[in-house]
Write a structure and sequence with these properties.
276 residues; Ubiquitin-like (UB roll); Cytidine Deaminase, domain 2; 2 domains; Sulfur carrier protein FdhD; sulfurtransferase activity; cytoplasm; molybdenum cofactor biosynthesis; sulfur carrier activity
Length: 276
């Protein structure tokens, strides 16, 4: 397994002086994903927790429906003599899942033109979602406090300053698991893959992400069944509409001074302040 960081010696500049210093930098590698011996995608990822990533990616991209659809999986080298060489994830999935993936790829390859083609692709990108089912009830203060404590759990980001994190938190505020990656989508996929492997029920807690929240992040959480998603940065209108349609609670700008609840269709967040 590749080391998560590399070393560099940049010249550090400040208005009053400059010097050379050894610094840790985040590593990123290409990861090729093959399903039933057919290449599907190459993703740039941080080279750790890759098993979590390939499982979470497979689920949130609609390739599989649950972990039992993966019959076997391996992660190996591409055998190229390069210090930045990639890895290859080979997954054997059930015939039904592979047929669905094959039909989807062939339908994309057969499209031409523009206009309606763009609409067609958007409909495939935003796959229909079932409403999130959960009886979760959580205090606003718990979500806010857990986001403030997440920084201490970002081990690799503390070293390099370059990684996003995604975390799953219990209703009492206990951070149950954290995954990091150079990509915000990857970090969330890793978190979901970890939860799949360890049978952590998505309906029983909420997710935190140290990034902005575009529609893909909502879609990933909703497809797995996480009822509440809180982001440290901004969200988008499409993310809000998607969250409403999926009965998912969406929080953004969860920072030291407070947070914004953009969507809470099932009233999962409890407020202590009067008048709210």
């Amino acid at each position: 397994m590749a080391e998560p960081t590399d070393h560099s010696q940049p010249r550090i500049w400040r208005p009053d002086r400059s010097w050379i210093e050894q610094r840790d930098v985040a590593r990123e590698i290409p990861l090729a994903l093959e399903y039933n011996c057919v290449s599907h995608a190459v993703m740039m990822v941080s080279p750790f927790d890759l098993e979590d990533f390939i499982l979470g990616f497979s689920l949130t991209e609609g390739i599989i429906d649950n972990i039992h659809d993966v019959i076997e999986h391996t992660i190996g080298s591409d055998n190229k003599p390069n210090p930045h060489r990639g890895r290859v994830a080979r997954l054997e999935i059930t015939p039904a899942c592979f047929q669905r993936l094959d039909e989807f790829k062939r339908s994309l390859a057969g499209r031409t033109g523009c206009g309606l083609c763009g609409v067609d692709r958007l409909e495939h990108a935003i796959r229909p979602l079932h409403p999130v089912k959960s009886q979760l009830s959580v205090k606003a203060e718990v979500i806010h406090d857990s986001m403030q404590r997440l920084k201490a759990e970002q081990v690799q980001n503390h070293i390099t300053g370059a990684l996003h994190a995604a975390a799953f938190v219990a209703p009492d505020g206990k951070i149950l698991c954290v995954r990091e990656d150079i990509g915000r989508h990857n970090a969330l996929d890793k978190l979901i893959g970890h939860m799949m492997r360890h049978k952590i029920a998505p309906a029983d807690g909420f997710a935190l992400i140290t990034s902005r929240c575009s529609f893909e992040m909502v879609h990933k959480c909703a497809s797995f069944g996480i009822p509440v998603l809180a982001a440290v940065s901004a969200t988008t209108d499409l993310a809000i509409h998607l969250a409403q349609d999926a009965d998912l609670t969406l929080v953004a700008f969860a920072r030291k001074e407070g947070m914004n609840i953009y969507c809470d269709p099932k009233g999962r967040i409890n407020f202590a302040q009067e008048g709210i």
